[in-house]
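Mods, move this if it's the wrong board.
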Amino acid sequence: MGRTVLPQVSPPPPRVWLRWLGGALVLAWLGTTTLHPVGPHDQAIVATFGASGPTLGPGLALSWPWPIGAAHVTDVTSVRHLAMPDGDGEHLMLTRDGSVIDVAYDVRWRIGDLRRHDLDLADPDATLRLGAETAMRAAVAGVDFATLMGGGHDALGHEAARRLQALLDRDRAGIAIDGIDIRRADPPARVADALRAVASARNDAANEATEAHSWSQQLIVHAEGEAGAFDRLYAQYRQAPDVTRREMYYATMERVLGQSDKVIVDAPGTVTTLPPLSAPPGEAASGAARAGNGR
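Not the wrong board. Structure tokens:
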């Protein structure tokens, strides 16, 4: 039985493999430079020959292959943070009453308009940092030192955020401010003790002024009450002078004699001493005993 001889298959020429490899590279180049997935939190700006095109939302963005076209995908919903100042050094500002305070804060922001943020601003980070510094200094200049020391941080953060948003909108920066959180608002370290003493003295003065006003109001009410009682008594006196004089006499004698011992002389040689009307029972009994001994 003869042996079967298989025909030998010669490998393809090198040019065929190069064609396959070149085709795969072209497909990879087209797929990676023309198809751009845009996530649910992202937006994309498509550019052709360096000129910006439309802004695309979530989905699959198409562009001309590189270097003809490109797509810049950016997250526009995540909240970003900017710390002011960068390090732990002092950040001194002037308050409305001329005091110096050390302020540190965090800016919470996000991209509100991608086209304005990426195309209209030469340096978005520098713009945001300069605007935050300007807004915070203006907000601090409108607040007294004692207010900041008393815990007015939330109001200061709201005012600074409002001012910063107005500045960014005026410059068409495409940045949305979510808020500003005050991390530190303290006196400078070199004069902290002295400024705290001044603030404490001011608070004490304000408290004493409040107490004095309350005391004066009480005196006014008491004086008005006494004046009203006198007016009513005078009206009664005009109607019945004799009766009113007698009532006033009895009331006066009751106040005078009510706090002292009374000596009653019934007849020559007979003296009776009575204790005060408000004396306790023990003193009343001793007074009666003294009266018996005096007879």
